[in-house]
What does this fold into?
Amino acid sequence: MQRVSISHAAPGMVVARNIFGADGKLMLAEGMELTQNRIRLLERIGILSIYVRNPYFEDVVIPEVMREEVRVKAVAKVQQVFRDFRITHQLNADKLQNTARQIVAEVLSNSKVMLHMTEIRTHDDYTFVHSVQVCAISVLIGTVMGYPNAKLMELALGALLHDVGKMMIPQEILNKPGKLDPEEIDVIRLHPEKGFEFLRQRHPTLSLLAMHVAFQHHEKFDGSGYPRGLKKRDIHEYARIVAIADVYDALVSDRPYRAGMLPHEAYEILMALVDNHLDGEILILFLRNLAVYPIGCVVELNTGDYGVVIDVRSGLQWRPVLRLIADKQGKLYQGDVQFDLATHLTTAISRVVPEDEIFALGYRPVKQAGS
Ligand SMILES: [Fe+2]
It folds into this structure.
């Protein structure tokens, strides 16, 4: 399968992975053919990219930390809990705990998978998608750190709740387009304390450590964060994990005002935050499990060859296994010509090839006979 942005989707392409709307409803099922109307529908609900079948990429299955249907259902539940909260000022903690449990189970069942960050997002649900994504990434880090189930659950709940205090900040400030003035920034910076106080007073039976994630996720390792300027191990380990997941997800997410970074770009930014904003030891563990060139990504080599990433290994993620697709003259390779960068140390990836150029290589997803 191949990921294409909606602007490159064309009638005749065949959907390779179920597409869900923001409410968790199935919009288009795997195997359905795109039509002009269907593409317009996807655009209208804010789908930015989809997976389509491509005979050249047929066996390239993009692994996920969380299956799309589990992710979409979790987002819908978090959205419902937080939206109800704005109206009733009550938090359905049981529902969130259930969602946390499902995310932990899902990540554990895929725990051999590196983080490929291939999820499809819609425009309007950033806050809820972000909470779920931060939760999944945090659980993945917890798994790598050898956490038992009970700790993973606390961590997951803390991650889902990390920004609950934002529900207590006026929406005009939260959603203000453009720059915030200093007073507005001060108001937003109250969200960790507001969230913590709310949870402690109204939901005293929830894990106190999970509440501390809400309180401490903006603390920085060198003491330059807020609200209390805590340092190093005075910041609870869960909050140090969630801070990493929070920054990473914010970097790679598409926002209305900018496209998300690619994983290898986000990797470099995170490296610059080692031991100042973020806990370096935990960050390194996370980065070892991040596919900087995710499966399905097309790259150009310093030899001029083009290839698609077909395998990524932990610790070797800068040297993935490729299937070569074209040489520097643009002539297509025939069959499965594999190239393992781990055994070709004088060859390097020079860049990630943008979608337009992939299509220019002649690798268009086409309707297959019989599909
Ligand atoms: Fe926050």
Q: What stands out?
A: The chain has three domains: 2-53, 68-288, 298-360. The beta strands are 2-5, 19-20, 26-28, 49-52, 298-301, 306-311, 321-326, 338-340, 349-352. Confidence is low (pLDDT under 50) at residues 366-371.
